[in-house]
Design goal:
The complex is a heterodimer of chains A (about 200) and B (about 230).
Chain A: H1 8-11, H2 14-30, H3 35-51, H4 55-65, H5 67-80, H6 83-106, H7 109-119, H8 130-160, H9 167-191
Helix pairs in contact in A: 2-6, 3-4, 3-6, 5-6, 7-8, 8-9
Chain B: E1 5-14, E2 17-27, E3 31-35, H1 42-48, E4 57-62, H2 71-77, E5 78-81, H3 94-100, H4 109-122, H5 138-150, E6 156-160, H6 168-181, E7 185-189, H7 193-197, E8 201-206, E9 209-214, H8 216-227
Parallel strand pairs in B: 3-7, 3-8, 5-6, 6-7
Antiparallel strand pairs in B: 1-2, 1-4, 8-9
Helix pairs in contact in B: 3-5, 5-6
Classes of the chains: A mainly alpha (about 200), B alpha/beta (about 230).
Bound molecules: adenosine-5'-diphosphate and magnesium ion.
Magnesium ion binds next to helix 1 of chain B.
């Protein structure tokens, strides 16, 4: 999520920032991993976070948010591959995610989505509507925490009743809440002049 | 000259079931309370005012516009505040959500920013401009919804139980804006007799029929008497 600031990265327009990060992510994912490459990538990430003025504390927060992802990836890979290979793979993924987070941290969602809509502009010729796609992206970002909240509610309700958590008993109420929410949201969209 | 809100022999059916019957009603008061039991048709009535519900029969005019036929026009003139604070936020951050209300107006970025900042300050949300909107409290979310409605400068604001999810102090703030501070015409659907009493007129629905209208205190008194 966006953190206001006045750094070079904050002032760089969304389009170029997005392209640069995409290019870097591609390079880091495709080029065969060498310790040097990884060390360089990590240095780059640290450097960029320092450059945002948000500092290493923000980097730490981002890493903490990734801990489950890291664990989920690490266990199977460490079991089926070797530990060093697993470490290399995961470092790559984490570096790419941290770079992507850098874009969202220093760009207003609005600007980011404008840039995406502009990039999708050529698709207009094929009948796609970039503004609608952009709106959908924004609404997805808005809705993720809401659905997460529903999930927490359902889990709490089940825990309160002492029901052992079964997948179906979890998914059904969650789905009902999500559908009701999307109905309400559709009304709000219409009322605010989107058709 | 037709009234600001004009219904003539209006009925609404949902899959063959009549939920609003032969409603004829003219309203020009500034603050209009809509009361009645659950399922009596209050929301159906409110939603017709901005075209979210289309009448099966009859004629509706709201501020000179036919909501069913002129959807673009009606949404410029009528703002709608729903009950659920969470389901009205469209954009990720507070300022972006208010700015969303101004899209398609041909304003420059600076103009949008200026208006949004002024509007947020008016609702005491200025310091949260860049916060993710979902991190606001329920009361703040409802203020945000109202802010996003009023920045479009509608002629009529429809609020369908806007305080239903709020605690007492947040309800008071919302009510103060709607009833005392904004100059626009207001249709307020509410279960709170104290809010209804502060309006200029009350109308009451029961089972899809307009059963009472007039001075709010009298309409509320008759409603409460019948419920005993
Ligand atoms: N979209 C819909 N489809 C079918 N029935 C509906 C729909 N909306 C409302 N109703 C029915 O219409 C009746 C009136 O509903 P509503 O206007 O929401 O009442 P109120 O707001 O007074 O509680 C209720 O019986 C409700 O079940
Ligand atoms: Mg209702």
């Amino acid at each position: 999520m966006y953190r206001p600031g006045g750094s070079v990265l904050h002032r760089t327009p969304a389009g170029p920032k997005l392209l640069t990060v995409m290019a870097l992510a591609l390079a880091i994912s495709l080029v065969p991993a060498s310790p040097w490459l990884l060390a360089g990538a990590i240095a780059l990430v640290i450097g960029c976070y320092l450059l945002t003025g948000l500092g290493l504390r923000e980097l730490g927060r981002q890493l903490r948010d990734l801990r489950w992802l890291i664990l989920v990836m690490l266990v199977p890979q460490a079991l089926f591959l070797s530990l060093p290979t697993a470490a290399v793979n995961i470092t790559r993924v984490v570096v790419v995610v941290l770079l992507a987070a850098l874009v969202t941290l220093t760009t207003r969602t609005e600007d980011l989505i404008d840039a995406i809509a502009k990039a999708l502009g050529p698709l207009r010729r094929f009948g796609a509507d970039p503004d609608r796609i952009a709106l959908m992206l924004s609404m997805t970002i808005t809705t993720v925490p809401v659905i997460a909240g529903f999930a927490a509610q359902v889990r709490e309700a089940q825990r309160a009743r002492g029901v052992p958590v079964q997948p179906l008993a979890f998914v059904v109420p969650l789905l009902v809440m999500a559908l009701k929410h999307s109905d309400d949201l559709a009304d709000a969209l219409t009322a605010r002049g989107v058709d | 000259m037709t009234s600001e809100i004009h219904f003539e022999n209006v009925s609404v059916e949902f899959s063959g079931r009549e939920v609003l019957r032969d409603l004829s009603l003219d309203l020009d008061e500034r603050r209009i309370a809509v009361i009645g039991s659950n399922g009596s048709g209050k929301s159906t009535f409110a939603r017709m005012l901005n075209g979210l519900v289309t009448p099966t029969r009859g004629e509706v005019r709201v501020h000179g516009v036919d909501p069913a036929r002129q959807p673009k026009e009606i949404r410029r003139r009528v703002g709608f505040v729903f009950s659920n604070p969470d389901a009205q936020i469209i954009m990720p951050t507070v300022a972006e959500d208010v700015a969303f209300s101004l899209r398609g107006r041909g304003l420059t970025r600076t103009e949008v920013q200026e208006r949004v900042t002024a509007a947020l300050d008016r609702f005491g949300l200025g310091e949260h401009a860049d916060a993710p909107a979902q991190t606001l409290s329920g009361g703040q979310k409802q203020l945000l919804a109202l802010c996003a409605v009023l920045i479009r400068e509608p002629g009529l604001v429809v609020a369908d139980e806007p305080t239903a999810y709020l605690d007492a102090s947040n309800s008071r703030r919302i009510a103060r804006f709607l009833l005392d501070e904004m100059p626009q015409q207001l249709v307020l659907v509410t279960h709170d007799p104290r809010l209804a009493a502060r309006c200029d007129i009350a109308v009451r629905f029961e089972a899809g029929i307009l059963v009472d209208r007039g001075d709010p205190a009298a309409v509320i008194a008759r409603y409460e008497e019948e419920q005993l």
